[in-house]
Each structure stands twice: as structure tokens, then as C-alpha cells.
Specification:
This protein is α+β, with helices and mostly antiparallel strands. The chain has five helices and eight strands.
């Protein structure tokens, strides 16, 4: 469960978008959200509201990025659902080649997405996932401050993370 859930618990919002009161852990939202972020010079991406994005990029570009993001997400979500996988959330990075907006960097990987097992999914509980959440959960148990380089990882954590990544790869590609 990521930063969006933490923001919702603190403010009732995610990236400036007000959500219904009383949502439970891992509950599906009424509709997918476009939650923009910017690259920080160092550290983690910074979540921003669509209004801030419109001011930075202009309304037409910001709205086009929102449309593209939701179209790609919906397509992937429906394809994965047929394989028994829920696409809880993901991130897409866009850039320009000339004047054309293009999708760049990785997409729909365990590093950029949250994949949940549809058969094990239950509202109110932390779902079985096949992504980097396992590693993040481990790091939460360490004294790491998230600003300095991360601590060395035990072999067991590396192996379990690799196994989760391999399992989602197999589930996606053997179902096709």
C-alpha cells in the first residue's frame, strides 16, 4: 500500500483530489485517478495537483497527459484482469520528441506498478502483491531514513523480491 493511501488517511485526498469518506484499505476507487508527479532533482518524485500541472505545462498538455495516462491504464487493467491480476496503480513517464508527447522509461513493471492477485484480493486487507511493495515493507522495518543510500539487503529479501518479479512475469506472459 503506497503513499496515496497514507495521504488519504491524513487528508482525505490524493494529489489534491478529494475522495469519498470511509474508504477501506485496498478498496477500489469509484474511478481511476490521474495523479501527476514531477521528478525531484534528488530523492523521490513529488506529487502535485492537476492545477499545479496545468500552470507548469499549460492546460492542453496537462489534460492530454491525463487522457493518455488513463487510456493506457484502462487498457492494461482490463488485459491483466483476464489473467487474474489486478493493476492497483502504476506510473507512466512522458517526454517530448520534437513536439510530440511520447511515453518514455519503463511501463507496467513491478518497479512502476502495484500488481495484486485477484483471487486473494479482499477489501480491508493488504493484498498479496507481485511488485516492489514487499521490498518497501521490509525497508520500513529498518532504521533507514529514506534520504541516505539504502542499507544492504539480506539475501533472503533479494531472493523473495526476485521470486515475486518472476511470478508476475510468468503470470502475465503465460496468460497471453
Amino acid at each position: 500500500i503506497g503513499s496515496g493511501w497514507k495521504d488519504y488517511l491524513d487528508t482525505g485526498e490524493v494529489c489534491g483530489i478529494r475522495l469519498p469518506a470511509g474508504l477501506a484499505l485496498s478498496q477500489e476507487l469509484p474511478a481511476p485517478l490521474f495523479t501527476p508527479a514531477t521528478k525531484a532533482k534528488s530523492g523521490h518524485d513529488v506529487n502535485i495537483s492537476i492545477e499545479v500541472m496545468r500552470k507548469k505545462l499549460g492546460t492542453d498538455v496537462a489534460d492530454r497527459l491525463g487522457e493518455l495516462t488513463l487510456q493506457i491504464y484502462e487498457y492494461a487493467r482490463e488485459k491483466l484482469k483476464k489473467s487474474g491480476i489486478l493493476l492497483a496503480d502504476t506510473k507512466f513517464e512522458f517526454g517530448y520528441i520534437g513536439n510530440e508527447i511520447v511515453l518514455i522509461d519503463e511501463i507496467l513493471t513491478p518497479d512502476s506498478s502495484r500488481f495484486w492477485d485477484a483471487g486473494e484480493y479482499a477489501v480491508g486487507s493488504s493484498p498479496v502483491s507481485f511488485d516492489k511493495q514487499f521490498l518497501r515493507d521490509y525497508l520500513e522495518t529498518t532504521p533507514w531514513d529514506k534520504n541516505s543510500p539504502p542499507p544492504p539487503l539480506p539475501a533472503e529479501i533479494i531472493e523473495k523480491t526476485m521470486a515475486k518479479y518472476e511470478e508476475i512475469r510468468q503470470r502475465i506472459f503465460t496468460a497471453q
